[in-house]
Amino acid sequence: MHTTKTDLRLLLECLKYQMQWPGSQKQALLTIISICKKNDQFVEFFKEIGGITFIYNLSKSTSFSQVKETAIFTLASFAELHGSCKQALCREEIFLDFAGHLEENISLTEKRVVVYLLSVLVANNSRHNFPGANDSFEQLQLWTSVSSALCSSVNNPQNEENQNTCMQVFPLIKTWLQDVALSRAALAQPICSFIGMTVANNLEQQVQLLSSGGLPVMISLLTEASDEEIRKAAMFVLHTCKRI
Question: Gene3D superfamilies from the entry (predicted)?
């Protein structure tokens, strides 16, 4: 255990002092993931010594695409491995940062790892961390921005791999739509658009939406919502799935 923690300290130092050597940084990140997968205690230790914060800052500051992509992948891996790391990453500025990142002119590989990170953070999060009926306008704007960014990642151009990744969060989104959507029209519309674009021209994901009970939710929004934009968004999803 002590030897492994020493290794993690040395790998973090390697990341800090190899800023001009992207190959070395990428390998160090992959080695850190490999070590941390063996024991949750290693993930917690790496967080305590500032490793997660450094990797997040590295993902923003590096000019090397391979380092940026691997750093984002590492953050997503940590979020999957350990609850406290997930909570550390579930901050408004991080969501806004990566949501805005998706709207930039970046490679498909980079988009893919950003979508992976966002989907992990959302899929592993509590439903209570979604905006409620009385939450702030700023939090509403945050989730609207994330939804819009994810829409771009699956449909600009169509990217089946990102569609398949994003569809994994639907069970949580479905619960949120059932509980909150009717009272939060400004957010229900982009969420429904996101679902529609995620299943567009993708029969496999349309079937997944059907099997997970998504179409009854859309029908409910179409018939019960008083807001015209919600009804239009629900109709968009139903129209997208009309062939199944």
Answer: Leucine-rich Repeat Variant
